[in-house]
Design goal:
The protein is about 80% helix and about 0% strand. The protein is an all-alpha fold and about 200 residues long. Helix 1 packs across helix 6 and helix 4 runs antiparallel to helix 8.
Length: about 200
């Protein structure tokens, strides 16, 4: 769900039409920048955030991503002027990067034996493609009501975030139980450390 929202966020503004441009002073030639700044923030920050997750628990990064994605989505419906709009699109991309880095770390942690990697990659790719297509359709449909498409990110992000938070907490509890049984004081692999171990083993 989180990766679906990330993909929708990347493409939805491309087809929102003249209402979006008029509200924010975006000339037609500037509209690609609304996509580019999001994609740049997402692409440039995913790797640093993945490295950060290897050193700290992923939950803070997830919470940061959820907060940035929601707040920037709301801000995009309130600001006026192209510079402010593009700036908050970059912030939204940063939130998307945090969500992507956390989801990737979680997938690796849940697949340490590597047996399901191909299926997980296929599912991930399908979700991203579906999100990109959905964003194009939604942007074209909403038209003058483009703000509602951005406001919808609030309940949708919560729908995606709450299960992720619970899953991360349950994973941490299971690691603690395994650590207690093996006598290492609960210092088993965290989600961040687990994918690092997998990378090293590969």
């Amino acid at each position: 769900m989180s990766q679906f929202l990330v993909a929708v966020g990347a493409s939805v503004v491309t087809t929102m039409g003249p209402a979006l441009r008029e509200a924010n002073g975006l000339r037609a030639s500037w509209l690609p920048w609304a996509v580019l700044v999001y994609a740049l923030a997402l692409g440039l920050l995913v790797l640093p955030l993945r490295l950060l997750i290897r050193h700290i628990r992923p939950l803070p990064v997830l919470v940061l991503g959820l907060w940035l994605f929601v707040q920037s989505s709301v801000a995009l419906t309130l600001v006026s002027g192209a510079p402010a709009f593009l700036a908050f699109r970059a912030v939204q991309g940063a939130g998307a990067a945090a969500l992507t880095a956390t989801a990737f770390a979680l997938v690796l942690a849940l697949d340490l034996d590597g047996q399901r990697s191909d299926r997980l990659l296929l599912a991930w790719s399908a979700v991203v493609v579906a999100g990109l297509g959905t964003g194009l359709v939604v942007g074209a449909v909403v038209g003058a009501e483009w703000r509602w498409a951005l406001w919808a990110n609030v309940p949708l992000t919560a729908t995606a975030g709450v299960p992720l938070v619970r899953l991360l907490r349950s994973t941490r509890r299971r690691e603690g139980e395994v650590g207690a049984r093996t006598g290492d004081g609960g210092g088993g692999l965290g989600v961040g450390q687990g994918d690092g171990a997998q990378d090293a083993a590969a």
